[in-house]
Amino acid sequence: MTTRAAKVFGLVALGMAVAGYGLTVRAADDDNKGRKMATAEIKQAGNQEDKKVTGTVKFSEDGEGPVRVVVDIDGLTPGDHGIHIHEKGDLSAPDLKSAGGHFNPGKHKHAGPNDKDHHEGDWGNLTADSTGHARMTAEVDNITLGTGKDNDVIGKSVIIHAKRDDLKSQPSGDSGDRIAGGVIKMDDKDKDKDKDEKK
Ligand SMILES: [Cu+2]
Ligand SMILES: [Zn+2]
Question: Is 102 one of the annotated active-site residues of the chain?
Fold first, then answer.
């Protein structure tokens, strides 16, 4: 009994000590409750024959924080490719035109992600290396996951283009054909509970 009580006290003391340094320690269960995760599985457009573009765009958000985005794509032509969130989750057209224009609930102009005024869906360019692989991470504060607000991206799509986004041509950066895309869907929480990454 004594030993166990001492152990519990020790843990509490540790938690308080860490909190004193401005860090937040939460149990894994609490962490999962506050975290929202979504994924867009990227597949190549029906009209693209010679390339095999595949990959994922993963979204996560803790509480009210920014949305963290991790893009991981293979099968691209080396170089820059425009990448955006588009306003519709309809990828039925072989050229992906059914996805509509850039996600733009705030009625902005097309630009780069670092420009003051830009579409909520403007992520700029994804750069593929010589093997066709591209990875991009970002933290964006102008979109939300599953909130039902205007800037909720669940049910929208991520589209990758054949060419570089020039970050200025209206309405979409002159980035050419839509070569691949995926619909943004909330992850199945029960499925992800066990394989959640530890921080
Ligand atoms: Cu686009
Ligand atoms: Zn745009």
Answer: yes
User: Nearest bound ligand to CA 125?
Assistant: 1
Of the given ranges (61-65, 71-75, 129-133, 153-157), which has the lowest mean pLDDT?
61-65
Q: Which amino acid is at 106?
A: G
Q: Name the domain count of the chain.
A: 1
Averaged pLDDT for residues 155-169: 98
**CA distance linking residue 62 with residue 36, whole number of Å:** 7
Range of the domain at 83: 35-187
Whether residue 135 is contained in a domain is answered as yes
Indicate if 81 belongs to the active site.
Answer: no
Considering every ligand atom shown, identify the ligand nearest to the alpha carbon of residue 122 and give its number.
2
* pLDDT tier for residue 21 given thresholds of 50, 70 and 90: very low
Evaluate whether residue 101 is within a structural domain.
Answer: yes
What the block records as the tokens of 147 is 């909130």
CA trace torsion 183, 186, 191, 195 (10° rounding)? 90
Assigned domain for 153 exists = yes
Question: What CATH number is attached to the domain comprising 143?
Answer: 2.60.40.200
